[in-house]
Structure formats: C-alpha cells, structure tokens
C-alpha cells in the first residue's frame, strides 16, 4: 500500500500535455458555440419577456412573470434533464447539443429578462417624453432612445451573465454533450488522474472567462464615450 | 385662432390640478404663463402637447380639434401632438446622441426628411442658436445654457405650429439665462407662435403679447403684460408679482 503523502504532488506531465488538446477542443467546438448560440437566443427571448413584463396588459405581464419565476426557481440541471430526457416522452426528440441550446437559452432568457427590464426602467421618464414631443411613437422611442441607453446600463450585468453561462455549459456534460468538462471526464475514465485533468479543465474555463472579462472591459469603455447627465 | 383650449380639467387621483382652463392664442403671438409653484402651469403646458391627457375639455390646434372627454386613439394623440413641440425645464436631450443627431432625429425618423436636407436645416438652426461649433459634441460636454439651446433647436427643427417652453431658464446659472432668453426673443421676432411658462417677468414684458396668471388650477388674470403687471385686478396676482420681483 502506498502511504499517503501530503505536500507532495507529482504531476504526470506527458498526460497533462496529451490531454490538453482534447479538452481544449471540447471547449472550442462545444463550450464556446453552445455559449454564444444560447446567449443570442436567450437574449432575444429575454428582450421579449422584458417587454411583456413592461406591458400594460395584465395578462401578458403575468405570463412573463410566471415564466421567469419558474426558470429562476428551478435548477438548471433539472431544466436540462426535462428538455433532454423528458421531451422524448412527448415524442419530441432532440440531439444533446440542441437540447442543451434549448435549455440554456430558456434559462438565460429568464435571468436576462429582469436585467433588461431593470435597465429599461433606469432610463429617466424625461427621455420618453422627449421622444414623444418630437413626434415618435412608442416603438420608435423604445428602439432609438431608450434601448441604446438601457444597453449601456445592462452591459455589465449581462456580461456577468455571459460569463456565468460559459461555466453553466459544463452541465451539458450530464446530457452527453462532449464539451470541455465531459472531455476531461472521459480521460479520467482511463487515467484516473482526477486532480490533474479536472484542474486542467478548470484552467481552460478560467482562461475563457479571463479573455471575456477583458473584452467586457473594452465594450464598457466604448459605451462610456457619452455620459448621462442624470 | 391657432390655439384654443376650453375647459381643461386634469386630476391626479383625488387632486384636481386644472379646474377648467380656457386659453386662446393667435398665430405668431407669444403667450406667457406665470403663477406660483404647484399652480398647474407644467400640467397645462403638457396637456397642450398631449404628454398629459386631461379628463375634460377640448383642444383646437391648427384646424384640428380633439375632445378630451372622449377616449382618444394613439393615432389621434400623435397627430395632435406633432403640431407642437416642447422645450423642457431639464432639457431632456438624448445623452447618447451628438448635438446634431439630437436635432435631426425628429426630422429624419419622424418626418422622413432625407438626411442631407435635415442636416443642412439643423446646421442653420444650430447657427441661429449660436452653437454651430458644437454640433459633434455630446450633451454632457455642454454648459446648461448650451444644452437648453440645443433643446430649443431640437424643437424648432420639427417646424411645429406651436413651441412650448416650460421654465426653460429656471434650472440655469444666472449668467447663462440671458443667452437662452435671447434665442427665445429671436424666435418670437421671427413669428413663431409660443407658449412660455417662466418667472422671467422682464422677458414676459418685452416679448409676450398676452400674459396668463394661473393660480390653483384656474386662470385668475389674463391680459397684455401691461395690464397684468401694472394693473393686476386680484390681490393674489399682486402678492405673486411682488414676491417674484423681490427675488430678482
Ligand atoms: N404625475 C403626477 N402625479 C401626481 N401629482 C402630480 C403629478 N404631476 C404634478 N402633480 C401635482 O400637480 C400639481 C401641479 O403641478 P405642476 O407641475 O403643474 O405645477 P407648476 O405650476 O408647474 O409648478 P412649478 O412652478 O413648481 O413648476 C402639484 O401639486 C404637483 O404635485
Ligand atoms: Mg412646472
């Protein structure tokens, strides 16, 4: 029996090098596309939900409110399982990747809706009135006056949601999407070097997020070229 | 008459703010509205631009008429609203657009005027308000007085039948007030029809064709500047005038 040794970790360098590319590849062909596609769909859904929440029609408001409440009140892992393992019971079968895109988009939609709604509400009422007084209708004011200002407010929280999403895609491993984390898992099945391989996966996630946070900073300073006077 | 409002009533909840206001204005004339804080001046002005929809009364503007006691469609509101344009006390410029973009927004997006034409006209207007060097600045880069002049330019660019001003100088530092008032005088001289809420009595005396003293949601006094300022009929008007004059 090998004695337990603390304070001494031997790194299997050849394994580290050999496993790096397959894990990274899982990130490049699954994690990143999954993140981007789900975020785009999710934001679109969020925009619709945010506008529904701001509607004067109670019924429309309520639908959006219930949806958001369900998404926020249930684990993403369970949402994924329902979409991938549950929908086939209704004879709707989707591939793991598509299932993950659906579940993640629906999830992002629920969370980002509140962010977008809050950012729309943060634009002063005077901006609506200024839009109206120059003759605009509601849609014109929303699109040309309110949303550009709301965008500036919502970029930091939405970037954070994007970065969270990168990490949340790892849950897609549970529905057999061979993304970054699943690749690492698969390699542990033969090498048993959990510490090394999962650390490697963590490192790659961290690099992705680090790069994103730099891009986030760039976008924010670009949008700061005007300063609201309110 | 270009403008005729009759029996305008507006409440917020239990609180009746406008208690049946009548006013008329001929084309090319300037009406100044004065009155104590909370008397309903802003509410009245906003009602003329349909930013507020009163419960009662009629509004006739440039040949069109609406009855506020009826339910109005969005289209009716918009058609009527487009006959006038408002200059706000806090200017409400679009902070994400440059000075020029602020001014051409309405003409291009709402009136569908081609960009080249709109820009040319906007530059002329900006020149008239003394801001031709600032067209590419963002609002936050301007002084309060300059911002307010952009607000005026934005309204003028729409060529509305009626310009509405809600205390356009009261949020400004004293030394910036005169530039804004001068722009407004120029507009009056050019024949714009204007309704101006202000505490600038000297401006009112110089420019107004008619002065309205509004108190607690009713028109208490109405006449030429001379009549209202020199020979007020009501004690309330006298008190108000002496209070405002004392502040100067
Ligand atoms: N949206 C609103 N909801 C409730 N009450 C309001 C609202 N807007 C204005 N009021 C009330 O209506 C009254 C008249 O307001 P208004 O702004 O028209 O007065 P004003 O004559 O313009 O005053 P000031 O000289 O201070 O600008 C005030 O008592 C105000 O509190
Ligand atoms: Mg007011």
Q: What this model shows, in words?
A:
The complex is a heterodimer of chains A (230) and B (248). By secondary structure, chain A is mainly α. Chain A contains eight helices and no strands. Chain B is α/β, with parallel strands linked by helices. Chain B has helices at 41-48, 74-81, 99-110, 115-128, 144-156, 174-189, 201-207, 225-230, 235-247; strands spanning 3-12, 15-25, 30-34, 56-61, 64-67, 84-87, 162-166, 194-197, 210-215, 218-223. The longest helix of chain B is centred in the last third of the chain and has 16 residues, at 174-189. Chain B is globular and about 50 Å long. The two termini of chain B are 35 Å apart. The chains are: A mainly alpha (230), B alpha/beta (248). Chains A and B meet through helix 5 and helix 6 of A and helix 2, helix 3 and helix 5 of B. Magnesium ion binds at residues 41-42, 166-167 of chain B.
Give the helix level of chain B as a range of percent.
25-40%
State mean pLDDT of chain A (0 to 100 scale). Answer: 91
Secondary structure: helix percent of chain A: over 70%
Write down the Rg of chain A: 22 Å
Global outline of chain B: globular
The biggest sheet of chain B, with number of strands, parallel, antiparallel or mixed sense and barrel status, is:
6 strands, mixed
CATH topology of chain A: MetI-like fold
Summing up helix and strand content along with how strands pair, one would put the structural category of chain A as: mainly alpha
What's the shape of chain A? globular
Count the DSSP helices of chain B: 9
Short key terms for the protein model shown above:
heterodimer, A: 230 residues, mainly alpha, MetI-like fold, 77% helix, B: 248 residues, alpha/beta, 9 helices, 10 strands, 39% helix, 25% strand, binds adenosine-5'-triphosphate, binds magnesium ion
Please summarize what this structure is:
Chain A is an all-alpha fold.
């Amino acid at each position: 029996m090998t004695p337990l040794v603390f304070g001494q970790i031997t790194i299997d360098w050849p394994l580290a090098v050999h496993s790096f590319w397959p894990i990274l590849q899982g990130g490049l062909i699954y994690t990143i596309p999954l993140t981007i596609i789900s975020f785009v769909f999710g934001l679109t859904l969020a925009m619709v939900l945010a506008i529904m929440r701001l509607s004067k029609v109670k019924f429309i408001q309520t639908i959006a409110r219930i949806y958001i409440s369900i998404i926020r009140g249930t684990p993403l892992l369970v949402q994924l399982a329902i979409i991938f393992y549950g929908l086939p019971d209704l004879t709707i079968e989707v591939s793991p990747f598509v299932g993950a895109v659906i579940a993640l988009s629906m999830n992002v939609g629920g969370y980002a809706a509140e962010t977008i709604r809050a950012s729309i509400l943060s634009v002063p009422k005077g901006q609506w009135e200024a839009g109206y007084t120059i003759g605009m209708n509601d849609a014109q004011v929303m699109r040309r006056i309110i949303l550009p200002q709301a965008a500036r407010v919502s970029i930091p929280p939405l970037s954070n949601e994007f970065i969270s999403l990168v990490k949340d895609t790892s849950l897609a491993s549970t529905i057999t999407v061979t993304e970054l984390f699943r690749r690492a898992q698969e390699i542990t099945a033969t090498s048993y070097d959990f510490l090394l391989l999962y650390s490697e996966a963590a490192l790659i996630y961290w690099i992705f997020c680090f790069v994103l946070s730099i891009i986030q900073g760039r976008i924010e300073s670009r949008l700061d070229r005007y300063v609201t006077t309110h | 008459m270009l403008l005729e409002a009759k029996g305008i009533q507006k409440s917020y909840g239990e609180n009746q703010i406008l208690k049946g206001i009548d006013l008329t204005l001929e084309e090319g004339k300037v009406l100044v509205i004065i009155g104590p804080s909370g008397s309903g001046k802003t509410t009245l002005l906003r009602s003329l631009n349909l930013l507020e929809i009163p419960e009662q009364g009629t509004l006739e503007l440039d040949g069109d008429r609406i009855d506020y006691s009826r339910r109005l469609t969005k289209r009716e509101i918009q058609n009527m609203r487009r006959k006038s344009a408002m200059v706000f006390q806090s200017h409400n410029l679009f902070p994400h657009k440059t000075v020029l973009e602020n001014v051409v927004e309405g003409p291009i997006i709402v009136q569908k005027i081609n960009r080249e034409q709109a820009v040319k006209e906007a530059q002329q207007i900006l020149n008239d308000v003394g801001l031709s060097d600032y067209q590419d600045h963002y609002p936050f880069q301007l002084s309060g007085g300059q911002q307010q002049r952009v607000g005026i330019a934005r309204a003028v660019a729409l060529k509305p039948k009626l310009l509405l001003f809600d205390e356009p100088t009261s949020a400004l530092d004293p030394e910036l007030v005169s530039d804004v008032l001068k722009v407004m005088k120029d507009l009056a001289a050019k024949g714009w029809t204007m309704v101006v809420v202000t505490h600038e009595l000297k401006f009112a005396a110089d420019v107004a064709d008619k002065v309205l003293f509004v108190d607690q949601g009713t028109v208490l006094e109405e006449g030429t500047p001379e009549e209202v300022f020199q020979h007020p009929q009501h004690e309330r008007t006298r008190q108000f005038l002496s209070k405002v004059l004392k502040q100067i």
